[in-house]
């Protein structure tokens, strides 16, 4: 599996896109995380308008064998969630870096320790 | 002390197939090869191939092998016909379940007991101790067998293409020695999926050859390798109990709704008889909790240990839960107070990490194949 170079990554296995002109970035989980979870069957995403805090839980992903917390990679306001994933959670497995994105956040603060693609690849092994 | 997990004879094959492995009862076993949902649906509609070599085989031979099993287990094994198999249990003196078992009668004086991997040593020790006064030999055959299962509606056709054995004459819960893909095997029509299927006990050295032959024979029918994850959801849909979840030393067969496996009318005494008679009477008059099925109204998944609630009170506990690929919604098996255990009971919920999610009480199983 390859982790896209244009994204940044958290140690909780979330990815973060580059911000757009409004300071908004897209968040998802990595293919490594999706594979570790197995088939995702339910995604509880933060609500639009919620403030999420870097490193803190903001939702959960249920798979066949387990439930896993979703962590916010940055701090900010949720401005959009991916209804396609709510309707069809398997998108997280089939397209974790694309159609399986989870939410968009207007960043107010971000931690200094987000990883580059290469760093994350080394980290996730 | 950590002990490295044991590997089956098919370990290299699993790794070559890209399996996600998991530690299960001290064994490194395939959890899934790709999507566990796809594997599940393959078994329901076509066929799946499983490595179950972690299961523990114990053989009893000798003139009193049947009598020894009658004393050691709750079933009437001496009455079992040669070539047939029976689902049974081994209990302690208090009636608590030590393990659930399948016993195959291989000959007039030969029985093979198949125990769960997690309990195999306990079962071996108990059988050895309990058989001591009988003219029988208890043999640890755990290292002498690999176990490969082919399960699903296409499994008879697949197996027929690689064996001359009379599969049409092989009934459910029967087993016969034969040759499959040139490999000597005990062919049993048993399984843990709720589908028609076969379990093939072979020498570990032959496992790879058999696996490859079945893979090739099943390719056209859509057979796929399947891991333990889908085995768990398959058995859950079929309402089959799993040791450590529905069955424990704290439960009797009657608590689990499986009192029919206890044969009080057999010859002689057996371990647990007195306690089990009391448990049977209790289940008849005042069952404390019953094993029921729960089907979710919503999409959050109940897990083992979650509380079942009704009217603000805790009325039970989930023993197994998973998203059901066949039903398309979460399901669970739970022990629930008798007052809330009738199918259709309103107002039952599962406490899913603080949120009370509505669940419908249903009779088990969730899924039954058409015959």
Automatic annotation (TrEMBL), chain A:
Keyword Membrane assigned? no
- GO annotation, cellular component aspect: cytosol; glycine cleavage complex
Q: Which cofactor does it need?
A: (R)-lipoate
TM annotation in the entry: none
What are the protein's UniProt keywords? Lipoyl
Cofactor note as given: Binds 1 lipoyl cofactor covalently.
Gene Ontology BP annotations: glycine decarboxylation via glycine cleavage system; protein lipoylation
Residues of the Lipoyl-binding domain = 24-106
Pfam families hit by this protein: GCV_H
CDD domains per the UniProt record, alphabetical:
GCS_H
Q: Which residues carry this modification: N6-lipoyllysine?
A: 65
Matches recorded under InterPro entries: 2-oxoA_DH_lipoyl-BS, Biotin_lipoyl, GCV_H, GCV_H/Fam206, GCV_H_sub, Single_hybrid_motif
Instruction: Give a yes or no for keyword Cytoplasm in this entry.
Output: no
Q: What does this protein do?
A: The glycine cleavage system catalyzes the degradation of glycine. The H protein shuttles the methylamine group of glycine from the P protein to the T protein.
Q: How does it assemble?
A: The glycine cleavage system is composed of four proteins: P, T, L and H.
Q: Which family does it belong to?
A: Belongs to the GcvH family.
Annotated protein name in UniProt:
Glycine cleavage system H protein
Ranked from the top, the taxonomy reads:
Bacteria, Bacillati, Actinomycetota, Actinomycetes, Kitasatosporales
Gene name tied to this protein: gcvH
Automatic annotation (TrEMBL), chain B:
- Which Pfam families does the entry link to? GCV_T (PF01571), GCV_T_C (PF08669)
Q: Which GO terms describe its cellular component?
A: cytosol; glycine cleavage complex
Q: Which residues form the GCVT N-terminal domain?
A: 12-266
- Catalytic activities: N(6)-[(R)-S(8)-aminomethyldihydrolipoyl]-L-lysyl-[protein] + (6S)-5,6,7,8-tetrahydrofolate = N(6)-[(R)-dihydrolipoyl]-L-lysyl-[protein] + (6R)-5,10-methylene-5,6,7,8-tetrahydrofolate + NH4(+)
Span of domain Aminomethyltransferase C-terminal: 289-368
Q: What HAMAP family does the database record attribute to this sequence?
A: GcvT
Which protein are we looking at? Aminomethyltransferase
| Organism expressing this protein natively | Streptomyces morookaense
Gene name as annotated: gcvT
């Amino acid at each position: 599996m390859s982790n896209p170079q244009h994204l940044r990554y958290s140690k909780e296995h979330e990815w973060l896109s580059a911000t757009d002109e409004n300071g908004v970035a897209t968040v998802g989980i990595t293919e490594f995380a999706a594979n570790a979870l197995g088939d995702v069957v339910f995604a509880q995403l933060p609500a639009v308008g919620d403030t999420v805090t870097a490193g803190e839980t903001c939702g959960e992903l249920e798979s066949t064998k387990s439930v896993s917390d979703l962590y916010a990679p940055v701090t900010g306001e949720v401005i959009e969630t991916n209804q396609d994933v709510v309707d069809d959670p398997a998108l997280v497995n089939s397209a974790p870096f694309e159609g399986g994105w989870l939410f968009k956040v207007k960043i107010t603060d971000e931690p200094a320790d987000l990883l580059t693609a290469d760093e994350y690849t080394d980290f996730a092994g | 002390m950590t002990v490295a997990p044991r590997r089956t004879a098919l370990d290299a094959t699993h790794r070559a197939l890209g399996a996600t492995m998991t530690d299960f009862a001290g064994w490194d076993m395939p959890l899934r090869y790709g999507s566990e949902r796809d594997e599940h649906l393959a078994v329901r509609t076509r066929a799946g191939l499983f490595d179950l070599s972690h299961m523990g085989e114990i053989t009893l031979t000798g003139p009193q092998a049947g009598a020894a099993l009658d004393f050691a287990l709750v079933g009437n094994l001496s009455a079992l016909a040669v070539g047939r198999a029976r689902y049974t249990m081994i209990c302690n003196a208090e009636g608590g379940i030590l393990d659930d078992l399948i016993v195959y009668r291989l000959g007039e004086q030969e029985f093979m007991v198949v125990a769960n991997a997690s309990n195999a040593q306990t079962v071996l020790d108990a059988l050895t101790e309990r058989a001591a006064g009988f003219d029988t030999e208890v043999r640890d055959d755990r290292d002498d067998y690999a176990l490969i299962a082919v399960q699903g509606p296409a499994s008879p056709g697949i197996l027929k293409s690689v064996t001359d054995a009379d599969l049409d004459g092989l009934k459910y819960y029967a087993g016969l020695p034969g040759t499959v893909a040139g490999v000597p095997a005990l062919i049993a029509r048993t399984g843990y999926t709720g589908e028609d299927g076969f379990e093939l006990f072979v020498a570990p050295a032959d496992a790879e050859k058999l696996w490859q032959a079945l893979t090739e024979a099943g390719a056209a029918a859509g057979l796929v390798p399947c891991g333990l994850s889908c085995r768990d959801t398959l058995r859950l849909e079929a309402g089959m109990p799993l040791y450590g979840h529905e069955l424990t030393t704290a439960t009797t067969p009657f608590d689990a709704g499986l009192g029919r496996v206890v044969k009080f009318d057999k010859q002689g005494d057996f371990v647990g008889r007195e306690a089990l008679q009391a448990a049977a009477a209790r289940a008849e008059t005042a069952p404390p909790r019953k094993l029921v099925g729960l089907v979710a109204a919503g999409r959050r998944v109940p897990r083992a240990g979650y509380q079942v609630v009704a009217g603000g009170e805790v009325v039970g506990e989930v023993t197994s839960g998973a998203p059901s690929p066949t039903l398309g919604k979460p399901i669970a098996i739970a022990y629930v107070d008798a007052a809330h255990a009738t199918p259709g009971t309103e107002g039952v919920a599962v406490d899913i990490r603080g949120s009370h999610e509505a669940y419908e009480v249903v009779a088990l199983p969730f899924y039954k194949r058409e015959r």
